[in-house]
């Protein structure tokens, strides 16, 4: 993958689910009402920038959400940050850059 380019969709793994769990409280700001739902990571794409952007499809009750999570470089000591949410998605919707 080229730096700055968006990687191919991959099935979610434990690391990606961990990122979802870390940013779940931030949903109160970006998508009120969803922070109390069980979120299960389904798939993701990544983009290497000054850190990594993850575009993650999650199952959230009766719909899917697409989350944009920025994971800073380790030396910064900063935690992952939820930087965007797309609600009302279906299982068939491809997770993409937003």
UniProtKB/TrEMBL annotation:
Residues 17-36, 72-98 are annotated as: Disordered. Its main location: cytoplasm. Pfam families: Cystatin (PF00031). PROSITE patterns: CYSTATIN. Keywords: Cytoplasm, Protease inhibitor, Thiol protease inhibitor. SUPFAM superfamilies: Cystatin/monellin. CDD domains: CY. It is found in: Cytoplasm. It comes from the Eukaryota. InterPro entries: Cystatin_dom, Cystatin_sf, Prot_inh_cystat_CS, Prot_inh_stefin. GO terms for cellular component: cytosol. Residues 1-98 form the Cystatin domain. Residues 89-98 have a biased composition (Basic and acidic residues). GO terms for molecular function: cysteine-type endopeptidase inhibitor activity. Belongs to the cystatin family. PANTHER family: CYSTATIN 14A, TANDEM DUPLICATE 1-RELATED, CYSTATIN FAMILY MEMBER. This is Cystatin B. It comes from Brachionus plicatilis (Marine rotifer).
């Amino acid at each position: 993958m080229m730096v700055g380019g968006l990687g191919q969709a991959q099935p979610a793994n434990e690391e990606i689910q961990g990122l979802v769990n870390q940013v779940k409280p931030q949903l109160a700001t970006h998508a009120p009402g969803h922070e109390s739902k069980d979120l299960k990571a389904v798939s993701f794409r990544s983009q290497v920038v000054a850190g990594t952007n993850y575009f993650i499809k999650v199952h959230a009750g009766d719909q899917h959400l697409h989350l944009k999570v920025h994971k800073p470089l380790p030396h910064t000591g900063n935690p992952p940050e939820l930087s965007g949410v797309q609600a009302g998605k279906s299982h068939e919707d491809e997770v993409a850059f937003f």
